[in-house]
């Protein structure tokens, strides 16, 4: 059915969105003019406070206006606590990519060795089993003490949380390469290095990419929390800062952007994964 | 040269038994030889260790005992001298048919230019009739085409010997027939030395010069070696008109159905594993007379096929 009507699913999506916004609108509807205060009092303590029970919860229109404001000028920089959302997201993305990249540089070669050698696997397994379930944020104080730089500590936390899925998946992918393919390389007297790069790596590539996709997802989840802790820049810091400003519209905007960037990161990795996937 | 091109001496495979139990011996005392340019098939029930023997010949597996000598050198580990066609084709699925063949060719002749490798690989793919499908990935090829690529890959490295592990087992009967004909033509043209595992009696008679019959495992051994006494230019279309075909076929089927399990039970007391009897069904004067395999000092049977027969007559 869905094949014959390709527009049906998007139409339903739009309907759901409209329903959501409608409910939101209803929930945040303001009782206008219920409280009347003195003009001078209002000027003194601010119109919002003066009008009494007005909630800080913004209406969809408020958030829409905020979103437009962010989108129309995403890269301004007016001091420490007033930077465009584009700059904040840029800082977060840079940290995630750096931590993720470093983790990949360690996890893929190490996973290769673990996958190829049952001995190394057995020797390192206890470490992996214990280190893997640790919340990456638990490393934060240790990182801050050792590294003494909040920015690099955040990168370290991303590195640690990206490491395990890539390591475990690479090792699994390498260990489960079909025996036949390795035997083909052996009977053709292909050198060990060429076998690693031309047989094992392409054979394990889809599994390695799966690990990378999980890693980047976790990294993007963790960066928000990490930046709330370390402060300074980044989308996590922005959210926390706007909480202190009680600007819920800004927080909701940031949440939407976080989701959007997370989706883009995941899609990019999915596309890379498709490029290395093979059909048997 | 008196010794055969490939010589298998006292090969055995044992797996260590679980606590306290004795070792499991799959096969032992395996002796046989293959001459240069000879096509040998090995037939036996599942579990007799055929694939293990092939893997030992390929250098992929190690025997518990005994040794394999090819062309005067002991087989230790895999080598480009022995091309292997795997049961499940074992093509690298992320490479096209051509790249799969080139992968081996590049390893065989590392000094060759890309054009040389390409031309050589193309030649062998065309030989198996895949000139039109060279750029396809294995997933886009049918089972028969995949196995053809596997054969082209093994032939392209121009090995001294070809090892085929039941290469047509997974194919339908029609495809199998076509590829058998192709293999037959290629082998006849190239005089390739071949060792092949098969379950198919007709396939063995069509392709082989001699058929090694294995008794059932455990303690499997070579029961006898059957010489295929049909003319070498046989074909699938005409082979079954030759009365000799049925004599050989009946002998093989009779062995597989009735006699292959006798050896493990110790029924064949006078069986000499060092010299498994050489049988030529239908050509013995009185039924299945058993002839000893000539020892290493004698002329190999292939180079002088009438010799043994005369000696027995």
From TrEMBL, chain A:
Its main location: membrane. Keywords: Cell inner membrane, Cell membrane, Ion transport, Membrane, Transmembrane, Transmembrane helix, Transport. One of its GO terms (biological process) is monoatomic ion transport. GO terms for molecular function: nitrate transmembrane transporter activity. The keyword Ion transport applies. Residues 89-273 form the ABC transmembrane type-1 domain. GO terms for cellular component: plasma membrane. CDD domains: TM_PBP2. The chain crosses the membrane at residues 6-24, 96-121, 127-147, 154-175, 219-240, 246-265. The keyword Transferase does not apply. It is found in: Cell inner membrane; Cell membrane. It is a multi-pass membrane protein. InterPro entries: MetI-like, MetI-like_sf, NtrB. Belongs to the binding-protein-dependent transport system permease family. NCBIfam families: ntrB. This is Nitrate ABC transporter, permease protein.
From TrEMBL, chain B:
Its main location: membrane. GO terms for cellular component: plasma membrane. It is a peripheral membrane protein. Residues 295-306 have a biased composition (Polar residues). It is found in: Cell membrane. Residues 6-241 form the ABC transporter domain. SMART domains: AAA. Keywords: ATP-binding, Cell membrane, Membrane, Nucleotide-binding, Transport. Gene3D superfamilies: P-loop containing nucleotide triphosphate hydrolases (3.40.50.300). GO terms for molecular function: ATP binding; ATP hydrolysis activity; nitrate transmembrane transporter activity. Residues 289-313 are annotated as: Disordered. The keyword Hydrolase does not apply. It comes from the Bacteria. Signal peptide: none annotated. The keyword Thylakoid does not apply. Belongs to the ABC transporter superfamily. This is Nitrate/sulfonate/bicarbonate ABC transporter ATP-binding protein.
